[in-house]
Amino acid sequence: MKKGLFTLALLLSVGYMSTAQQVEFEEFDLDNGLHVILHQDNTAPVVSTSVMYNVGGKDGDRERTGFAHFFEHLLFEGSENIGRGEFMKIIPANGGTFNANTSQDRTYYFEVFPSNKLELALWLESERMLHPVIDQVGVDTQNEVVKEEKRQRSGSPYGGLFEALGSNLFKVHPYKDPNIGYMEHLDAATLEEFNAYFDKYYGPNNAVLVIAGDIDMAKTKKLVAAYFSEVKPRPEVVRNFPKEEPITETIKAQAFDENIQIPAILATYRTPGFASRDAYVLDMISSYLSGGKSSVLYKKIVDEQKQALQLQAVNIPQMDYNIFTIFAIPSGETSLDTILEEIDEEIVKMQGELIAERDYQKLINQFENQFVNANASIVGIAESLATNYLLKGDVNLINKEIEIYRSITREEIQAVAKKYLSKNQRVEIEYLPKKDDQ
Q1: Which pLDDT belongs to residue 19?
Q2: Number of folded domains that form the chain
Q3: Is residue 173 located within the same domain as residue 287?
Q4: Which N-terminal stretch is annotated as signal sequence (predicted)?
């Protein structure tokens, strides 16, 4: 969302080595239900303060989609004690940076300040939670901002890919709707509806506050209590999303994009949510298929046979269902069907025999590197702690998640490929140039 000047970038990674280290943290709850996680690292004079709310694109009335993403913007408008537009001036004026982002499952705000500005950071986030100004001026302003963001996305080549995935892979679960929402829904929304949405989802008992970096633990606990204790808890959010029926035969679909000249193909599968063990295995499978130029699909289809300009297998992480998709842009006269045949040949091979020991060891090395890199800065650590608590239910995954990957065997990779990646379990989407008459 908002782009800060990352003047502290060099300091953020100070103190972290290229080998994985145990991340120490402490947790506690305020009486209002706000969960707090503290991570102390005094090797650099910086601190990351972040709040993750358990609300995303999937939440809310399906005739009012996009509210969570809208609030990502709206809650920078100001508060009873922060003037309109001042939020984004205060942070850089005090040597800080900030950003926010929204997924289908959560909304995340964070600031990075020199550590002597911790109290300022806590005040800013408490103001967002306690005293936001949600008025018609702010709604109208941010409506135009969101519309411009939507135009930029839809105006870029292949910018509608993710929307095509969601709308074709899901029929009843709210993942079917784009995270950014439909503009007509935002246009039709009333101020009362925006206020009701805030009251329902942005309470302290539906959030986690993470403070990581150069802090004094005892002093930080007192500051947290001082700034957040007066926030009133909200009723518990109850979710009961409809379940998708399994895909039992190939579904063929088309999507159109006026900004492309070369078509693409997506072979996409609905798979278990990111907290499941099978999701971890599918992470490894996606890397095996296209993680780097020596991966089996990239090497074969792009490098050797030159049938595709681009190819990528991705296991898109979501809480309720992941999206496993293989995306390819053909080269020259290669047809989309030919690309699919080449992809299927490698999947069938993986289902029928164990991957090579050498490839397996390379996967383990890749995931060890990813694990280390994710925890190589206080910003990365803070987001991992928040995600693991709020969405995965286990904060200590920050230390033990790598052991899950290490425990996955070649036999398990084969079994999971058989379980989820068959032709009759997928949606094949032809992503085509839009013609004038369409």
Answers
A1: 45
A2: 2
A3: no
A4: 1-22
Distance CA 415, CA 353 (A): 10
Tokens for 350, please give them: 């993986």
Take residue 410 and report the two structure tokens written for it: 């070649």
**Residue 222 sits in the same domain as residue 256:** no
- At 113 the three-state DSSP class reads strand
Tell me, what's the pLDDT at 102?
97
- Quote the distance between the C-alpha of residue 263 and its chain's center: 27
For residue 1, is it within any domain? Answer: no
Report helix, strand or coil for 93.
helix
Residue 189's region, left for phi above 0, alpha for psi from -120 to 50, else beta, is beta
Q: Are residues 366 and 406 in contact, defined by beta-carbon separation less than 8 angstroms?
A: no
- Sheet strand arrangement including 46-53: 26-29, 35-40, 207-213, 46-53, 107-114, 97-102
For 166, what's the count of Cα atoms within 13 Å in the CB-facing half-sphere? 21
Q: Are residues 59 and 158 in the same domain?
A: yes
Which pLDDT does position 7 carry in this prediction? 34
Contact status, residue 108 vs residue 39, Cβ threshold 8 Å? no
Q: What's the pTM value of the predicted model, to 2 decimals?
A: 0.92
In a domain, 234, yes or no: no
Please check whether residues 188 and 50 belong to one and the same domain.
yes
Q: Could you tell me the residue range of the domain that residue 46 belongs to? A: 9-228
CB distance 96 to 111 below 8 Å: yes
Largest CA distance in the chain: 66
3-state SS, residue 434: coil
Give the residue among 120, 131, 82 at the shortest CA–CA distance from 98.
Answer: 120
Q: Do 310 and 268 share a structural domain?
A: yes
Q: How far apart are CA 173 and CA 171, in angstroms?
A: 6
Distance separating alpha carbons of residues 219 and 90, to the nearest angstrom: 23
Among the listed residues 73, 67, 100, the one whose alpha carbon sits nearest the alpha carbon of residue 182: 67
371 φ, ψ (degrees, to nearest 5): -65, -45
Confidence of residue 15 (pLDDT cuts 50, 70, 90): very low
* Domain identity same for 180 and 279: no
Same domain, 299 and 348: yes
- The C-alpha atoms of residue 52 and residue 391 are separated, in whole angstroms, by 10
How many Å apart are CA 264 and CA 244, to the nearest integer? 26
Check which CATH number belongs to the domain holding 215 and give it. 3.30.830.10
The pair phi, psi for residue 376, each rounded to 5°, is -95, 0
Residue 4 lies in a domain: no
Give the pLDDT confidence of 136-153 residue by residue, as tens digits.
999 999 999 998 998 888
